[in-house]
Design brief:
With about 190 residues, the protein is an all-alpha fold. It contains ten helices and no strands. The chain has helices spanning about 5-15, 20-35, 40-55, 70-80, 85-105, 110-115, 120-140, 145-150, 150-175, 180-185. Keywords: Membrane, Transmembrane, Transmembrane helix.
């Protein structure tokens, strides 16, 4: 069975027309840019977007008290008082879901491919760094919050939940955003 576009393709290949110089230059520059991927640049972009989106989640976090009184803040504060481990799971889930989803949606497919090559290692480093930052910032809260944030169980739950949510969001959002590439691999 012949391809219905075969005739058009043959006609295109036999034509002697050349594209304008500006189009040639643009296409070649795009190809060069796509081929010169620096992992540090892709990871840097991911981290910057992640940090900006994560900063916005602090507006609803009762640990820092930045968002004023809201239903979400009141709800999380009550959970923290009664079950700090559940609070760790919910808080890190919200934090990493919003920030990872924002990062993946803001990046190009080829940049995500570079990140995917090192994602298990780099996501571990991101999670530990963010966890350490959270611990430092947690010292600014009340003494009850400080006790909770320095509990080893809370820290482990927060880090594990954050890491797993980051991995799941990365792959899920990438698959939804770029379905043709992920379907062809299966």
């Amino acid at each position: 069975m012949t391809n219905p576009n075969q005739h058009d393709f043959e006609q295109f290949m036999s034509s002697d027309t050349n594209p304008p110089a500006t189009i040639k230059k643009t296409v070649l520059n795009d190809i060069r840019r796509d081929q010169k991927l620096f992992p540090w640049r892709c990871h840097g972009k991911f981290v910057c977007i992640h940090a900006m989106a994560a900063s916005l989640t602090l507006l609803i976090c009762p640990q820092f008290g930045l968002g004023g009184q809201s239903f979400v803040m009141d709800f999380l504060h009550r959970i923290a008082q009664h079950n700090p481990w559940l609070c760790a799971l919910i808080c890190s889930g919200i934090f990493f879901f919003i920030s990872t989803t924002s990062s993946v949606l803001a990046m190009r497919e080829y940049e995500l491919r570079v990140i995917e090559q090192f994602h298990l290692r780099s996501f571990s480093i991101y999670t530990l760094a963010i966890g350490a930052l959270m611990m430092v910032m947690g010292t600014q809260g009340s003494s009850a919050h400080q006790e909770m944030f320095f509990s080893s169980v809370f820290i482990v739950m927060w880090l594990m939940s954050g890491y797993l949510v980051m991995l799941a969001c990365f792959h899920l959002v990438k698959t939804i955003s770029f379905p043709s590439k992920t379907e062809s691999k299966g």
